Amino acid sequence: MSTATAIRIHIQRLPKGRPFTTSCFTSHGSRGAVDRALSRIVHEGEIERLCYGVFVRPRESRFVGTVLPAVEEVLSTIAAANGETIQIHGAEAVRRLGLTTQVPTALLYHTSASSRTIHIASTTVKLIHTSNWRRLQFAGEAAGLALAALWYLGKDNVTPKAIGKIRSAIGKKEFKKLRSANVPAWMAAALVRAKGCAR
């Protein structure tokens, strides 16, 4: 069986709407052969290229047409394929948690790998390297979102009111997880002080 045929069969077994990477097909042939086969399949319209090395079988909706996966899902796929950790940046985290109404000018994320800019469909995403592993704790979870917000706010702006908003937004279970994180002394103290704030 040729590399192209094996890849087509493999793709047909993948769920529509879920991103996948080139690494899924390494057992079917050389990297060059896999890349050529995927390029042909993209050209034929069976799959779409979301960004370099990441593809999807399009899922169609009768209401909106082609439905592409969310940026976070694509980044999760990239992280799994590369063995890296990707965490939302604090500037976006504070907005999602209702701590600010300002919208970042670009989608920013921290990564344990190298800094780079990627284009996911029509969205530009900047990945910023951090060697501080404590910023990457609970990546992809509500507790991680809260942790990113706390790092971004900084020591002088993490008030009991801010932590109260965070706790309301993420719920008791995730807040308990947040309090178990390995954080600097000032952040741990702020979480302890806020223990009795409004639920």
Outline the secondary-structure elements.
Blueprint: H1 3-12, E1 20-21, H2 31-43, E2 48-51, E3 54-56, E4 59-61, E5 65-67, H3 71-82, E6 86-88, H4 90-96, E7 107-111, E8 116-120, E9 123-129, H5 142-153, H6 160-179, H7 185-193
Parallel strand pairs: 7-9
Antiparallel strand pairs: 1-3, 2-3, 4-5, 6-7, 8-9
Helix pairs in contact: 1-2, 4-5, 5-6
Structure, described:
The protein is of the alpha+beta class. Helices cover 42% and strands 18% of the residues. It has helices spanning 3-12, 31-43, 71-82, 90-96, 142-153, 160-179, 185-193, and strands at 20-21, 48-51, 54-56, 59-61, 65-67, 86-88, 107-111, 116-120, 123-129. It has a four-stranded mixed sheet. Strands 1-3-2 form a three-stranded antiparallel sheet, covered by helices on one side. Strand 2 and strand 3 form a beta hairpin. Helix 5 (142-153) packs across helix 6. The longest helix has 20 residues, at 160-179. The protein is elongated. The model has no long low-confidence stretch (mean pLDDT 91).
